[in-house]
Amino acid sequence: MFNAFRRASFIVLLAGPLAGCGSFAPGPLDLAAVHSDAEPALQATSDKNAATSEQLAKAKAHFAARNFGLAADAYRGAVEARPDNAEGWLGLAAAYDELGRFDLADRAYGRALKLTGPTSQLLNNRGYSRLLRGDYAAARRDLLAARAKDPENQQIARNIRLLRR
Predict the structure, then answer these.
(1) Local structure of residue 162 (DSSP, 8 states)
(2) Does residue 64 belong to any structural domain of this protein?
(3) Is residue 10's pLDDT more than 70?
(4) Within the chain, what is the greatest distance between any pair of CA atoms?
(5) Which of 48, 62, 71, 102 has its CA 20 to 30 A from that of 55?
(6) Considering the domain boundaries, does residue 5 fall inside one?
(7) CA-to-CA distance for 161 and 149, rounded, in angstroms?
(8) Are both 98 and 130 inside the same structural domain?
(9) pLDDT of 52
(10) d(CA 110, CA 93)
(11) CB 154: neighbour CB atoms within 10 A?
(12) Rounded to whole angstroms, how far apart are CA atoms 37 and 100?
């Protein structure tokens, strides 16, 4: 009970300065919910979301630094914590592509596809993956479908130019 009060106090103190920040706009704190019997479930969800966000940030940093093995580990941690996280699955697939683990990349693309459907980003990434493995016909299908969904996307246009070479 005391820990819940400390957490609620911390959130109130933290939320004050961040209330004007566009990336963090909390609603009013519901103290009744903090003290209810549902607190462990709410806390577990909150902890899981925080852990997933932390894992995704770590994974993106590793990917940007071209540490693809570490990126894959962090993305895997994110999707293990939240299997419904499409961003995590897409990142995991991209990391596996860079490691040449196309079998695992295909599985991750499949999970992302079930969550989001064929988005332009997924089709672009999967098309690039197929380009890397030399499956040019499948790469062309995915990249053209991605361009049809997002004709102004420069990354898709670059990947299509790569395919033409």
Answers:
(1) H
(2) yes
(3) no
(4) 64
(5) 102
(6) no
(7) 17
(8) no
(9) 77
(10) 9
(11) 8
(12) 48
Query: Can you give the residue range of the structural domain that contains 132?
Result: 118-165
**Helix H or strand E encompassing 32:** helix 31-34
Identify the residue whose tokens are 């293990």.
80
Mean pLDDT of 105-128: 97
- Flag whether pLDDT at 51 surpasses 90: no
Query: Is 148 in contact with 135 (CB distance < 8 Å)?
Result: no
Q: List, for residues 56-66, the tens digit of each pLDDT value.
A: 999 999 999 99
State which amino acid sits at residue 54: E
Indicate the number of domains in the chain. Answer: 2
Over residues 76-103, mean pLDDT: 96
- Does residue 4 surpass a pLDDT of 60? no
Q: Sign (positive/negative) of CA torsion 115, 110, 125, 88? A: positive
Residue 32 C-beta-side C-alpha neighbours within 13 Å: 0
Amino acid at residue number 88 = G
Domain CATH for 82: 1.25.40
pLDDT confidence of residue 49: 73
133 and 91 share one domain? no
Asked if 4 and 35 count as a contact pair (C-beta separation under 8 A), the reply is yes
- C-alpha 111, offset from chain centre: 12
Please check whether residue 142 lies inside any domain of the structure: yes
